[in-house]
Design goal:
Blueprint (H helix, E strand, L loop, with lengths): L1 E5 L6 H11 L5 E4 L10 H11 L2 E2 L3 H6 L10 H13 L2 H8 L6 E3 L2 E3 L14 H10 L4 E3 L7 E5 L5 E4 L7 E3 L7 E6 L5 E5 L13 E7 L4 E7 L3 H11 L3 H9 L2
Parallel strand pairs: 1-2, 2-3, 5-6, 6-11
Antiparallel strand pairs: 1-12, 4-5, 7-8, 7-11, 9-10, 10-13, 12-13
Helix pairs in contact: 7-8
Bound molecules: zinc ion.
Zinc ion binds next to loops.
């Protein structure tokens, strides 16, 4: 099976459509790691598009806040303004969809999906120090996570050596810049190793690359392909301006921060 792994869409319709266009024909099922809404200008169309795809899905912290399961007290001012704007712009039916999203972890095929981590859906896994204990605990050989908006992840081999993915310019990733797929990095997964993999963020990447991110996991071939794709950033930013969303949230998109 080939799984299209999407995370942190954040109401970015142009970004989502660009990912789906690039992924077309390359996957059999869709997986969504949460944060469908929050920050961006198109919560309703993005919810509707995701529902059409019938993904295996879990909720993210912004989904929880936007539908009122949690208040947005732990968010910064800009995120809180966007949360209230999102809540006010969604119909009861779409708010109910967000409210009914299951909490991770969830099992999909032979892997697990989480928003933050298996221990805490709001945890940020930013470095090997945080990833290693989770890798040692996990009972699946591969777990997909989101929340950090950083494409890549962590691995632990059978000898207990941990690594950060991607390791720039080093194995096991190969760069296929010239491929018609656009920008893709391939991670060949090694039997006996454990992996925590982040597909990156569709709607608000924070790794310095503004382009939309996603991944495709082929469990039979034991391979993850990481993709980046340009989208109509100006259109998204214009909608945000019209909606009166905070300028820092609009500007950060072009910096990938
Ligand atoms: Zn997020």
């Amino acid at each position: 099976m080939r799984y299209l792994i999407l995370s942190d869409l954040h109401s970015g319709l142009e970004a989502l459509e660009s990912c789906l266009a690039l992924a077309r024909g390359k996957y059999d099922a869709v997986v969504c790691l949460g944060d469908i809404v929050g920050y961006g200008p198109d919560p309703a169309p993005v919810i509707d598009r995701i529902r059409q795809l019938k993904p295996a899905v879990i909720r993210g912290n912004h989904d929880k806040a936007c539908c009122g399961i949690t208040d947005a007290d732990d968010f910064n001012d800009w995120a809180r303004i966007a949360t209230y704007w999102t809540r006010a712009s969604l119909s009861d039916d779409r708010l109910a969809f967000l409210r009914d999203l299951p909490q991770g972890p969830a099992r999909v095929g032979e892997f697990d999906i989480v928003h933050g981590s298996a221990d805490d859906e709001d945890q940020y896994i930013m470095n090997s120090g945080q990833a290693d204990p989770l890798l040692k605990e996990q009972d699946r050989w591969i777990v997909f996570f989101g929340h950090t908006h950083l494409q890549g992840g962590f691995s632990l081999d059978s000898k207990g050596a941990s690594r950060c993915i991607p390791m720039i310019g080093a194995a096991p990733l190969t760069r296929n810049d010239g491929s018609p797929d656009g920008s893709a990095l391939t991670l060949q997964l090694v039997k006996g190793s454990r992996y925590l993999v982040n597909p990156g963020s569709v709607g608000q990447p924070r790794d310095g690359d503004w382009r939309s991110a996603f991944a495709i996991f082929d469990d039979g071939a034991r391979r993850v392909k990481f993709y980046r794709t340009a989208y109509d950033l100006a259109a998204t930013q214009e909608k945000m301006t019209k909606a009166g969303l905070p300028p820092p949230l609009i500007r950060r998109l072009e910096h990938g921060r």
